[in-house]
């Protein structure tokens, strides 16, 4: 049921009135009378319902109907309904128009002839969205049994220190060990035993970029994918996967259809970082560049994201919640609830960007203005944990920090979930809380538009609404979730939405090759209306003076005393007659950059530029300067890998057997000994004493310890040598001996 105190009630009534007028032929006076009579009856019913409002006098907060009418949204509740979204945004998830033509065959995910490859930038046991959601997406796609096959490509952190930093104590010695962990999680935690066996899991080498706490691929991922499986590719976070990607075949040339799913609002994060005036626009351009160049279709999880490629993007929530949360919600509805009425909690990373500071301020406001003192249990960890604790202690809010926990464990312990974050693209914890039958008090924000359709979602747009929604949640029981609502939150429904969102029709394809060019919306040049008006007046006065100046020049040209030839005069007059009728108001408030390129031509140009930058000898330099640090040295990494500079001993043993590994180890030891012997002979031929050698390389007795044959060291050259005297196979010993010898 709709809450009688919401703004979009009147909006819906107005839409109904228009519908009735069209149905009865709105040019008819009779139709207008019928419509107005219907609206009057509905409004009167709505007013009678408003009379049953809750008085907050018992908790120090009172708001009567007269105050409500003056506010954008007001706090009124009925005993049998809950608040829905008061923002003017639509609750519809898919912002694209319905497809009027059939989709192109190569974009159909459900085709039995198509193999689907999902590439993501995180893997379990890192419980982050880009690790969990792509894995579940692959598993539920596989459950449809309509595919040729489904492969998920996960990052293998080959450096032990990276695993320690990302996974904590859950480190793995081999890819097979981590793959077993992932399959067990699918089988036990996700309840998908069949998918855990059938899903094809591949790994690509990756390193952690510690400054960003992000994982990036090392080497060319596309080279690992067989050509007979290169049908449809799903890039989870396409911008992230391509920022520092190694040179190689492009996604759009390797695959017939590439779909990018944008998870993160990097532009919003850049706004909170130092030098945001430069960093934020650069981040916006870079993200648009990566998405345009590498994707045929773009799926944005919510309207909170900026525009990347208008002609090929769609807004759709393609995430679901695990069956565990749906089962908890059904159990909660079966019998009388034993959950404490005043139990409130927050779960998520302890980051200021998650709105922790905002939540503390809101709780303090509720306590000071409405005597609404609640204790909030905070679950999670993060770099700002200590700062959040300090902030909470300064404001005397009752907040308990309890560390990380699986969200499903809170199904029977808490009743109200509060989430003030506006930096999310789509908050998974909100979906999980709704699935478990909890009240959710969240910010009225485009990232939460999908959830406002559910009866237990209570969005707020100001402090007063937060107080009202929190009070309502504490004094009422959540409405039972219908099976329809539960299914809408499930991965089965999310998979259906995803399959539909990936399709491209011929009409959409035609929009990519239009000749009209592209209009790119730019941020407002002058946001302050008063300043913009003054600026506009100055520009208009300047334009008037300039036109008067041109008129005087024209008069001079018409003068019989002017010595210029007639042909020159005519050309000058034509130029003077030209006028730029610019709309200064629009330029200052809503500027647009128009490119004389079709979307397809722009995408092609951006991809060519990306390839030129990536493959060039200076590609590593640009990636490092751009913030990639060690993960930016992709060309160097590929070169070292091709030369066998680094070999993972456990991986070699498991692939070729322990006996083969020992044999290779003996060969490398012999090669290393011959190499050191040859080097010592070179030194003796030069009559170089031990003291001089010690000054250079630490003495002939410790050639191995100084790293002359170590990784990445350049061996010294001597006047009588064009190249170092290294026995056959010595280049292998230089990089592999240490790793294989332990």
From TrEMBL:
The record's subcellular location field reads:
Membrane; Plastid, Chloroplast
User: Quick check: keyword Lyase in the entry?
Assistant: no
Question: Can you tell which superkingdom this protein's organism belongs to?
Answer: Eukaryota
Coiled coil (residue ranges): 532-559
What residue spans carry the region label Disordered? 80-106
Provide this UniProt record's keywords sorted from A to Z.
Chloroplast, Coiled coil, Membrane, Plastid, Transferase
| Gene Ontology MF, one | digalactosyldiacylglycerol synthase activity
Report the InterPro entries cross-referenced here: DGDG1/2
**CC annotations in GO:** chloroplast; membrane
Q: Where is the composition biased (Low complexity)?
A: 80-98
The record's Pfam families line, in alphabetical order, gives: Glyco_trans_1_4 (PF13692)
Q: Which family does it belong to?
A: Belongs to the glycosyltransferase group 1 family. Glycosyltransferase 4 subfamily.
> Under what name is this protein listed?
Digalactosyldiacylglycerol synthase
